[in-house]
Amino acid sequence: MHEMALMGEIVQLIEQDAQMKKIKYVKKVELLVGTLSNVLPDALQFAFDVYKMQANNCLTMNAELIIHIEKAKAVCAICGSQYEPVTKIAQCPACLLPSGNIVAGETFRILAYEGSLTHENYIGS
Ligand SMILES: [Zn+2]
Description:
This protein is α+β, with helices and mostly antiparallel strands. The radius of gyration is 18 Å and the shape is elongated. The strands form 2 sheets. The chain has a 3-stranded mixed beta sheet, covered by helices on one side. The chain has a 3-stranded antiparallel beta sheet with strand order 4-3-5, with no helix packed on it. The protein has a domain of 81 residues: hypothetical protein PF0899 fold, CATH 3.30.2320. Helix 2 links the parallel strand 1 and strand 2. The structure holds zinc ion (ZN). The site of zinc ion has 8 residues, from loops. Keywords: Metal-binding, Nickel, Zinc. Involved in the maturation of [NiFe] hydrogenases. Required for nickel insertion into the metal center of the hydrogenase.
């Protein structure tokens, strides 16, 4: 399950950034995951929960994970039709050729995270 490794990197990146910005705790982490990115949202959520459980005093230990799904989109190089491909080899529904260029759906990145500089409004679990 490569989601564990991915999530580890994400948590580490956010922790480092949050420390630099003197953030006291992270409230929310938002990710953008494409349907063709080979990353499973459920597995990501699971990995995040595992990291939070293992974490002692880390900034993300009470953060909420929000996963935004990016729908796949392909544009046919021959006829220009746009459609939602099911696999990375995108077959145009009009030409029936694997002529689609994937323009969306392969994304996997941190969209944003939200932190607080103070401990007020802090609700620990
Ligand atoms: Zn076409």
